[in-house]
Design a protein that fits this description.
The protein has an 8-stranded mixed sheet. A hairpin with a 5-residue loop joins β1 and β2. It is α+β, with helices and mostly antiparallel strands and 203 residues long. It is built from 8 helices and 8 strands, in the order βββααβββαβαβαααα. Helix content is 44%, strand content 32%. α1 runs parallel beside α3, α2 crosses α3 and α7 packs antiparallel against α8.
């Protein structure tokens, strides 16, 4: 199965009540996947992304500890297909004393939680990217335009802190905005890039 490595770039409340949207983009490409997940799973992902210290282990932490105790290594998780409105994923594991690879069917939200705890890569099959993948630049610009004109700038400036997109992607989006002659968006992106570079210089 051909697949592409994916990176988590955004986690935000969904327009559907009590759900969250997680945005995954290709590490080396422009396609993205947006997956709706439950609030509990989203909060567990946020704990990892934000490196939040908690007094007691969460269920995913306990599950990963059990895997470690029995010398089971999580090699990767792969989003495999999208069917009838549902995403499917596989959890790929091995044991220290065994060359056999085991593949388990798993919900994407659970797979991502385990991947974050085991520091293993997240992949998406080329089939799923071709079926439901989309251009992340269009996603970004649609997110910007989903405001009233008089609030557009303030909304863009506060989109989950643009720094989550990273300098490389922001510079890519800036170039794209300039090519489209969308100078309002370009101006805000340029300011954010300058701000992030100044922070890096001070570190």
């Amino acid at each position: 199965m051909k697949k592409k490595k994916m990176l988590i770039k955004d986690l935000r409340p969904s327009k559907i009540n009590e759900f969250f949207d997680i945005l995954l983009i290709e590490e080396d490409g422009e396609k993205a996947l947006n997956i709706a997940i439950g609030e509990y799973e989203a909060k567990n992902i946020a704990v990892c992304l934000d490196s939040i210290s908690i007094p007691r282990p969460l269920s995913y932490d306990s599950f990963y500890s059990i895997l470690q105790r029995f010398n089971i290594n999580v090699k990767e998780v792969t989003l495999t297909k999208f069917r009838d409105g549902t995403y499917y994923a596989n959890l790929i594991c091995t044991k220290d004393d065994d060359d056999n690879v085991e593949c388990f069917d798993i919900r994407p939200s659970d797979a991502i939680n385990i991947a974050l705890r085991s520091h293993c890569p997240i992949y998406a099959s080329e089939d799923i990217l071709n079926d439901v993948g989309f251009d992340y630049k269009k996603y970004f610009n649609d997110m910007i335009k989903d405001t009233t004109n008089d609030k557009e700038k303030s909304c863009l400036s506060s989109i989950e802190d643009l720094s989550i997109w990273g300098l490389t992607m922001l510079e890519d989006l800036l170039s794209d905005a300039i090519q489209r002659e969308d100078y309002q968006v370009a101006s805000i992106l340029r300011d954010k890039i300058k701000e992030l570079k100044n922070k890096e210089d001070k570190q």
